[in-house]
# Entry
Amino acid sequence: QKEVEQNSGPLSVPEGAIASLNCTYSDRVSQSFFWYRQYSGKSPELIMSIYSNGDKEDGRFTAQLNKASQYVSLLIRDSQPSDSATYLCAVFTGGGNKLTFGTGTQLKVEL
Amino acid sequence: ETGVTQSPTHLIKTRGQQVTLRCSSQSGHNTVSWYQQALGQGPQFIFQYYREEENGRGNFPPRFSGLQFPNYSSELNVNALELDDSALYLCASRPSHGLNTGELFFGEGSRLTVL
# Structure
């Protein structure tokens, strides 16, 4: 079982729709959770962090965390073509000082 | 722009050679980590340096080694290159107060091709 699992996609949504990206993780002691956006040919860029159960909203982005189910999600409201990118879920486990990434979900926002 | 700079941006090596990649962290950031990202995959943690000491390592063999300097810049060295080492190598820094978080600032990476 992979430590962090994501559907690789591509996930296609029309402009203006809500994009829903999902991630599961295997290590129950994981402490903090992140979503990074990576445009093609570029490096990852942090867009959301979440540390406790529930929802966290920042502009058009909402991160959701359910530690009991070991599940993290990212909602993007009013999706724009500029949101087309690969979204990487990342989980931090303090014991190893390492951030573990999933393989990423490719999002395509179509006009 | 994250303020993290890496060099070189692209390089080509042959199998068996050695390579050194360099990273300058963002001002005020004393923790640097390195990641390997193969095509179509997420970044894989190689190691982390804090105050010039390695304080975390992923599942990479000893031929992957690193250094951090007093000015917090860093190097990644890979010996005896193999074809599978071809990847984008990412350096990421974070401030001291972010020591135990995954809020990283990535450089643009060094793309290594091993022939």
Remarks:
- The mean pLDDT of chain B is 92.
